[in-house]
Amino acid sequence: MIANALANFANYKFYVGFVFSLVGSVFYFLGLAILKYAHMKNSEQVMEYRTHYLKDTRWWTLFTMFIFGWICEMVSFAFVELTLVVSVLSFGVFIGVFYTAWYIAEKITRRDQIGVAITSIGIIISVIFSDKVYQPLHPITISFISSQIIDFNIPILFVIFLVVLPFIFILLSVFRPFKNVFFSTSISSSFAASNFILFKLFIELVKTSAETNENQFVHWETYLILGLSILYTILHTHFTQVTLVSYEFTVSNVLYYIIMSFLTVCGGELIFREWSGTSVLQLILLFLGWFLQFIGVLLLLGSHTNANSMYPLTQLNDPRGGHLVRVSDVDLDFDSDSDNEKPHSNLHEDEEGQQQQLDSSTTKPTTTPKLHEEKPLEQQNESTTLNDSQQLLDSK
Q1: Closest CA relative to residue 228, chosen from 293, 308, 163
Q2: pLDDT at 329 over 70
Q3: 317 DSSP β-pair partners
Q4: Residues 353-371: tens digit of each pLDDT
Q5: Contact 185/319 with Cβ under 8 angstroms?
Q6: How many domains does the structure of the chain reveal?
Q7: Would you list the DSSP string of 94-146?
Q8: What number of other Cβ atoms are within 10 A of residue 353's Cβ?
Q9: pTM for this one?
Q10: In angstroms, rounded to a whole number, what is the distance separating the alpha carbons of residues 264 and 199?
Q11: Dihedral of alpha carbons 83, 258, 187, 330, sign
Q12: For bias kind Polar residues, which ranges apply (predicted)?
C-alpha cells in the first residue's frame, strides 16, 4: 500500500498537476474572498449594478484572479486525478479566510491556528494516499461514451444527472421554501462539479487523440462537451457571485466547498474509476485526510461568524415577501465604526417623526379655540364702526 501510494512521487506529472491545483485553489478562493469585500464596498455607492462593476477596475482585477484560479484547476486535470485536485482545495479556503481577516484587521484566534494545523495534516494525508496520476483502464472515446449511454451504465447516467442537477436547483429556488443559502450555494457548487466532470471528459478525449490514432475531434460530441463546459463556467461564475452578494461568505463557502467536493469525488470514481486497484486501507486513509480537512475548514470559518464575522451579514431575506434583498439595499460600512451609529440615528429619526406627529395632533385642538376667540373681536370691530357712523350722523 505504501509503495503504491509513493510510486507516483517520481512522476513529473504529479508535480505539474499538484502545482497547478495548489495555485488554482489559492487564486480561486482568494479571488472569491476579496470579491465579496468588493461587492460590499461597491454596494455603498448608489449606481446601476452592471454599469458599476464593468467600470470598476478593482472588481475586474479580483474577477481575473478568480478566473485564473479556475483555469489552473482545469489544467491540473490533464496531469492528476480529480481526487487530488479536491484534496488541495481546502488550502485555498483558509488562505482566503486569513487574507480577508488580515485585510479588514480582524484578530487571528487560537481556533484559527488549530484549524490551519488540522487542515494541513489532512491535506498531507490526502496527497500522500491519493493515486495522484490518472491512468485510465481504457481510453476515453466518444464511441465508448455512446455505448455507455446506450447500455444505461450508471457512471454515464451520473454524468447526465450532474449536467441536469443545477437546473433542478434553479427551478426549486423559484419557490419560497427553497429561497435560502443552501439552495443558492447548491446551484453554484453543482455547476462547478458538473464543469469539473465535463472538462475532465474533454481533457481525456484530447489525450486519447494525442496518444492514439483515434482522433476524437471528428465527432461533434467532442465540441458539445467543450461547449457545455464553457457554458457551465459562465453559469457557475454568475451564480457564485449571486451567492456572494446575497449570503454570508463563511456559510456559503463551507457549503460550496462540501457540495462541490462531494459531487466531484463521486464523479471521479464512478466515471473515471480512479480508485480501481486501490486498497481499502488506502481509501480509508484518503477519507481520513478529507475528514480532517473538513473539520479544519469548519474551525476556520466557524470562528469568523456571528459576532466575530468577517462580514457582519447573515442571510439577507425579505421577511415580508421571502425574496432576496440586494446588498445595495443594505447599509454597510466596514471602514468606520458607523455600523453601530446608523441604527441609532435611524431610531432618533423615527422618534423625531413620532414627536412631530404628536405635536401636530396636540396643536389641532388649540387652533380651533382660537377661531372661536376671534369671533368676539370681529363683533367688537363691527360695533365700533357702527358707533363711529352714528356719531357722524349726529354731528350732521
Answers
A1: 163
A2: no
A3: 324
A4: 555 555 555 544 444 444 4
A5: no
A6: 2
A7: HHHHHHHHHHTTPPPPHHHHHHHHHHHHHHHHHHHHS--S---SS---HHHHH
A8: 10
A9: 0.64
A10: 12
A11: negative
A12: 378-396
At 128, the amino acid letter reads I
Residue 34 shares a structural domain with residue 140? yes
Is residue 130 packed enough to be buried (19+ CB in 10 Å), middle (13-18) or exposed (0-12)?
A: buried
Q: Does 281 share its domain with 355?
A: no
Shared domain for 41 and 82, answered yes or no, is yes
Rounded Cα–Cα distance for residues 127 and 375 (Å):
98
Cell reading at 103:
485585510
3-class secondary-structure state, position 317: strand
The three-class DSSP label of residue 324 is strand
Specify whether 188 is located in the same domain as 293: yes
User: CA distances (Å), 170 to each of 94, 162, 319, 327, 395, in order?
Assistant: 29, 13, 21, 21, 101
Cα 86 to Cα 258: distance, rounded to the nearest angstrom: 10
Residue whose C-alpha cell reads 480509508 in the numeric block: 284
The radius of gyration of the chain from alpha carbons, rounded to an integer in Å, stands at: 33
The torsion angle over the Cα atoms of residues 269, 270, 273 and 278, rounded to 10 degrees, is 50
Mean pLDDT (whole number) for 9-25:
83
Q: What is the pLDDT of residue 306?
A: 42
Across the range 225-254, mean pLDDT stands at 75
Of 152, 142, 258, 236, which Cα lies nearest the Cα of 188?
A: 236
Q: Which pLDDT tens digit goes with each residue over 154-194? A: 777 887 888 898 899 888 888 888 777 777 778 888 888 88
pLDDT band at residue 223 using 50, 70 and 90 as cut-offs: very high
Q: Is the CA virtual torsion 169, 172, 173, 179 positive or negative?
A: negative
Judge if 201 and 263 occupy the same domain.
Answer: yes
Same domain, 124 and 262: yes
Helices 220-246, 181-211: crossing angle, 10 deg rounding: 150
Q: Where are the alpha helices (DSSP H) in the chain?
A: 2-6, 12-42, 49-54, 57-76, 82-87, 89-103, 110-129, 142-150, 154-172, 181-211, 220-246, 249-272, 280-302, 338-395
